Structures
1.
Amino acid sequence: MSTRLFDLTGKVAVVTGSGRGLGRAMARGLAAAGAKVATAGRTAADVEAVADEIRAAGGEAVAIPFDAVSRAGNRRLFDETVARFGHLDIAVVNHGVGRAKPAVEVTDAELAETIDINLKSAFVCGQEAARRMVARGAGGAIVFTSSTGSLAAFANLSTYGAAKGGVDQMCRHFAQELAPHGIRVNAVNPGYMEHRMRGSGKRHETPEMAEEIRLATPMARRGRSEEMVGPVIFLASDAASFVTGHVLPVDGGYVAV
Amino acid sequence: MPTDPFDLTGRTAVVTGASRGLGAEMAKALARAGANAVLAARGRAGLDAVAAEIAAAGGAAHVVACDATRRSDVEGLIAAAVDRFGGLDIMVVNHGLGPAKSLLEIDDDDLDAAIGVNLKSAYVCAQLAGGRMIAQGGGGSIVFTSSSASRVACWGYSCYGASKGGIDQLVRQLAQEWARHGIRVNAINPGYTENEMADTADIHDTPEVARFIERVIPFGRRGRVDEMGGPVVFLASDAASYVTGHCLFVDGGYAAV
């Protein structure tokens, strides 16, 4: 038995927003598949704890606290990763924030925060990763964490959905421009997950929401953070060597119905 | 890795159209990942060669010569898989043909062939496989080979594209209907690929198409048949445990542009 197509031994990966939730699971999963991982996020204690978990499991990791909305922060993240591990093969642009509010009540500050973190800083992060991959000339893989909110409407998530719709299209544009450099660019689009995203409040934990998820999701349950790992390893690995510009929902069938 | 989510050891996979091209590569990839491979196609000679390759690599393969367009043959195929390996876990509905002609030249035979083989017989294969999976207690993964021609136009593919558009929708329908039985249903959608599909005309071998592939498709080349192995193993495995109702494009970015 061999699943070496999915093996990431020798690869270097950065995962942003990896202090908790989906990013934490992805960072641990990539490391378990053999990658050296830079765990990046806002809260130093969180990303350091995840790096410790990876090392305790026998993997290689470095924690790099960073501010995703800062250009300088993104540059420093990738520079420090390359300084530590020698190069960059995989960038998982996963950080984000999701505030739920009726569209008519959204303030300029809330609009700016959602777009800046989910779309603008994802662009900058993907761009800085791509610059280093292009300069090295050895290809690479970029994976954005988008959302089913890019493909279907969810109550009170208009700003978030708009930002993630932008991420999907950015993924296709990046894929087209970077293909000549052997860099593949794809997205994973989680649906309703057990982990509550930063800013999303308690709205998602009501009995009404549980009933809505049961009715609207063919698999009739939330996804677990660990269920993002396989899709990310697949897209990051040689197993997906002809997959680029693709948006992969990991949603229990939510957008199919 | 402590537990490998891509490992298919102990699972039984049926692959139709497995005597050559994409189907042969998918069967070999599934077997490499540990699955017992049941190879189906009309011609025994091609199947035996693929089975010999799998056996030489240490895998388990069983050959069933059958006509996937006949319900009774498909019933026999599934019975043979269960008889030989004890159950059915993965069904790859891959057989198909591609009459490529201009819309005005398509005759009723072409139409019957494309819709009858690519859509109707794929439906029957999935129906019988799903029925078996449900009867044995649920759980399983069905993967259709669709095509990027299900979503984007491709020269000469008016009836082929229509049949594959039907497959994509069938994926979503079955994903919804069978999620309660723990059966996931997905497709891979290859773009221009190096293999020769049955009945593909010279319409795809022109300098014009070569220029299109080079200039328009982000990767600038055809996919290799072995590049379909990773995606099918991913969708068949627990690594995709929360992925259902999805059409995964393996097309070098073709559908993204």
Note: Chain B has one domain: 12-249.
2.
Amino acid sequence: MTIKMKVRNVSKLFNDESGEGWKRVQQGQSKEQIFRETGVTVGINNVSFDVNEGEIFVIMGLSGSGKSTLVRTLNGLIPSSAGEIWVDDVDVASCSKEELRKVRREKCCMVFQHFALFPHKTVLDNVAFGLKVNGVPKEERYKRALESLDKVGLDAHADSYPGELSGGMQQRVGLARGLANDPEILLMDEPFGALDPLIRREMQDELVVLQRELKKTIIFITHDLNEALLLGDRIAIMKDGAFVQVGTAQDIVSDPADAYVKAFVADIDRSRVYTASDIAEDASRVPLTARVSDAIAAMDRTETEIIHVVKDGVPAGLLTRSDVESAKTSARVMDIMHAHPPTVPQDAYLNEIYSEAQTGMPLAVTDDDGKLVGVVSAENIFEHLASDEEETGPDSITSAAI
Amino acid sequence: MISPSDFLTIPFDDVVNSFVRGFLVPNFRPFFRAMQVPVNEVLQALDGFFAWMPMLIITLVFALVAWRVVNRTMAIATIIGFFFIDMIGLWPETMTTLSMIITSVLFCAVIGIPVGILAASSDTAWKIVRPILDIMQTVPSFVYLVPIVMLFGVGMAPGIIATIIFALPPIIRMTNLGIRNVRKDLIEASESFGATYFQILWEVQIPLALRTIMAGLNQTLMLALSMVVIAALIGAGGLGLVVNTGLGRLDVGGATAGGVGIVILAIILDRITQGFAEPSTSNTSLLGFIASIFKGQSATASDKQKA
């Protein structure tokens, strides 16, 4: 995996003409103390991270945490006070204006929270703006802008003005404008923050679908942890201008770095964080041709109450202990099994498998080829949905359940 | 009572006199003479053009423009107004005034819009420009008529230069305001796509500030018109001269006729430039056209009340 953007020790101080604030930052004073005593605002405090090619890197924090400042330093809209920001082989923090413009035109486009569409230009001209300032001839620019609009499903509105579109549509135009230059990196500053919840959900899903096809490197800013967990391949949690924790959604939910992250994680929708494979347990299995005695032996060995019958690794049926105990030991499992056991794909989120789990039957978790990789029971799901704020380990979860 | 003048008197008027007469006039007169050359060229071209063009064609063109940018009512009002001016025998003077106005406004725009843009792009520039504008707007125009006559002489061009000084501030102020009021996030968005300063100016700031700039141009035009009579004192011709002559001879009728001519010209030019300042995209559709007639009627009605 190649690293697309490398950020090293970036800091940004506002109103620090004398350098006093910087000295105090070096001494490790807190943001609040520095502001109270010198009037210097510490926007970003010594942040370092790498963004891999093709991943969605989410920076999550509350308002005032410095996330919007951080994303603006990444393309030089706000110059950083210290540190290096490498986009491929250009250091955005120290390069010349021409080089910076080149990065902005060719590599790094941005989508804004309040859309920032030009009200005097048509949708098509808005999308073509980045190409126009880059000197792309009219015909090609409109062709590429239309392709970009087509990607977000708004090609029919090319001649409308932004004011005539709804909020969701306007942000699609903003996204199309960001994509029109075909940048390698897309910076998204709370792009869905100004949309109402239903449209936001729709746009999130759409971004996921779009990203599957485009495979851009996306740096996504949000204040909504659910959004961060849904979209982010990796998530950085930001507080007072510094990163508190960087990791995958599962890392952050199951292992919060400190009390701050823990407080966030406490009321998030876990069903959108864990996938079936995250919570699956080892499945015991017998081949289709086995006898009931083999099934009992297998269940005793693994101490499970249910067993899947597989054909070439694909789940074909299900047996419970009462099924096998009431049957003759010499019977073949394929004659007494419950055919068509409920199955779920391993990358399904928990909220997508509720309806299957309602039957009470354990769910077979399958991989991309449909082969059995594990089993999920309803109890399993509940255990992972419960917040483990008070507990320390799996044992206490069980005791709490009792 | 003791007053400061008992101890020290400053001969301010003598200082100014010696500065203008002893320094500016002998040293810079050729420079100021050269300055009025472009003004004269433009003025003569316009004056010649309006004198050559038949009255009916000019009326028709103005009526057509009024119809396109305002509405049909305004077009009819334009025709009636110009016919009235012609019938009271002031057509040539009106055309002279018109060419003077257009020349002044042209120079105001050429100077004012770039200065406004400069003032908008730098706070330092605005800090320098702003007090100058304040002075230009508060100093009575009679005060600078004398030095203008000394430096430029008398005639049309000095009159226009006085008009330019008088009418320049609004266009600078409004250009500055319009550009500064362009939403910051749009500037940021343009920057994020790698636009240069001039690309942002041309693609985003000026188009979005255009309505404010046009409103400033409208104000400049109105000020230029109000300067017509004063400029006539230093030898500018046209309707101002008619008013001044009437004043000198206590000829109430002549002065009123000149005044009415100025008012009619003012209303027509004001409506048309305001129409440019508020471009309504709707008057291409039939419904929008009908609506604009009603809107226009109520607007002209209120104008009549004002007049």
Note: The radius of gyration of chain A is 26 Å.
